[in-house]
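[agent] plan:
  1. take the single chain provided in the ticket
  2. run structure prediction with default settings
  3. attach structure tokens to the ticket
  4. add a short note for the reviewer (M.T.)
[agent] executing step 1
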Amino acid sequence: MPRARAALSALSGQPGWRSGRIGRATDDADVWVLTTEWDSVGAYRRALSTYDVKVHAVPVLSFAVDEVSAFEVLVAEGAGADGLAAPSGLA
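[agent] step 2 finished; step 3 output follows
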């Protein structure tokens, strides 16, 4: 999760970023999700071209898989999140 936190931090510093969350699949502890909200698609695309995002976020995004699951939010930043860092509810 440290790499996902670094990715979220790099993305959160970009113009147009609203909020972001890191979650884990409830049925597979090795499957994670990084969700972000932006003002527009253009803001997201511009963020991807910045140096910090290329260094910290793009390597994490390269591990993306097309998989359906349910996720629990473990870290949230941005509007209404108040720096949520919740312990896992998995046994």
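[agent] step 4 note for reviewer: Residues 2-12 form the longest helix (11 residues).
[agent] ticket updated
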